[in-house]
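Problem: given the chain below (611 residues), write out its structure.
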Amino acid sequence: MLTLGLCGGLDSVHEQAFDTPSNYTYDGAAVLLENGSVLAAFEEERLNRIKHSNKLPVQAIARCLCTRDVDLTDIDEHKLAHAVAAMAQSGFAESLVYVIDNAGGVFAGSHSRNGAVTLTPAMATAPTMSIQKLFHAVFPFLGLGLFDEYKAMALAPYGDPTVYASFIESLYELGPGHYLLHLDRIASLVGKVEPRQPGEDFTQAHKDLAASLQHAMEDIVLHVLANAKHVTGIERVCLAGGMAENSSTNGRIIYTELFREVFVHPAAYDAGCALGAALPAAQEIGTLPAARVQGVAWGSEVGKTAEISARLKCWSGFVTVEQHDHIELAAAQRLARGDVIGWAQGRAEFGSHALGHRTALADPQRPGATVCLARALRRSTPYRPFGLAVIEEEAEQLFDLRGGPDAFRFMAAAARARDRTRALLPAGVHVDGTARLQIVARETSPRYWALLCSFQDLTGMPALLSASLNTEFEPTAESIDDAIATFLTSELDGLVLGSCMMDRSAPTWRDRLGRLVSLPPYVQMMRTKRREQGDDLLGHEIRTSYDPPRRRAICAELGDALEGLGRAVPAAKLLNAYSQARQLELLDELKTLWAERLIVLVLDRVAESVI
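Solution.
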């Protein structure tokens, strides 16, 4: 029995029918189940290359169906539910389920022996009472916006939560089993904190405000959960919803020991709704698996060595490739000498965290590794901590794993480092003494585990600093070509694809002119006009169709060349009217646009498979 679940917007990738934040149709995805078990899961952003895609997940649906070689006529019905996905894959027979989202609440959940999941509402959260609304009310003072909740969380440990405690506490009220928000009082912050402009540094006042905001979230969440446990007597809890991606709050829940076990779904945010949509339909016809989910490698396959090698040969002017029989050792040697490398293996992860399949890695023992990794991936948030992967056999020696190792499998909760660990892992432990931890088991991630063991053999440390394999302008890499594009537009020192180690080479002018140039379906070329000193000046601009939109001015020559561009054309043809010196300048601008994913650059020999 096959079921397909999906979530996302309704407009096509090239359309500009923007969804409003209140609709929360971002993070579109599709999930295919067979007899209740996941066969395939794809986030639309990984395929249409729009971060937090709010478009109809057409490509994700197609990839899911292709995995099983079926079409839509072979699929049964679907519904949407964060709570179902969390409860069904928690491994718990009975649990509270707290959906912390735009419209969430607490449920009493059960998972019977025959696989049936039932949810009984215990407390509903109206959109007007969403913790997300509290964050977004404060965000204008922090210079943050949509999808920036993780930035506020990362900033909080640098501040003092007591500075603005009285103000933040005035914005919410804890009652018997519930809470109220008083966001109309936000105006009283005017004059107390100077609003940060985008691109400006955070002042200490901004850090203090973020700390108070984070403390408020933890205060509200623990209040709700303590009451729900008191009323129901249930001693386990599952967390889902976009705000359940707050690893600091999740860690706080674990360390209060309010519950015997805590499970945070690895795709807690909106993409996980696709899974929650498919599970109830599967349940109506058959039995759902009762065991806890052990991995989320449900996406595209990197491929076999021969396929990878053939693809990399197409980029011979831009990269050099070495194949290794023991790629884990070769990669560990690069990391041990200070390199920052990408690591792509097997099927891509479903969810927001890189768990050893589409990952960038560095040595956490080096004090500057966080800055190096951020720079390599062109990230503009150096204060944000990266994840830390540790082999299961050594994790207890480095961290206080209260709640057991299963609570830290998916990098969804902040684990408290032991005193000696802070000195051992200066780049892996955040300023508050925690790490966003992934405990890696040999049984579920054998190659990643082997890499960590090889690194331990060389350095004595069984841990690596990890981040998603993407730059600031794109979603996490899904395909081989995504990984190559990320590598070539980043400052990573190397990239591992399967058993192949890739390094950069210096392309010739002819190599660069040989690439095909095209526009992604989500961008449009626009002519602009501005008045300056009494004259009307014409210009060119690239605009995106997704929400929130991006706009970027480009030079007149490229504007003229790209306007009306249909099929992909070689850069040589696009720029043939200009001198060699000017061509080199325009090639540099094309590379910048490619790095920002506003154009597509491929080689002629791989064009048909990429565009």
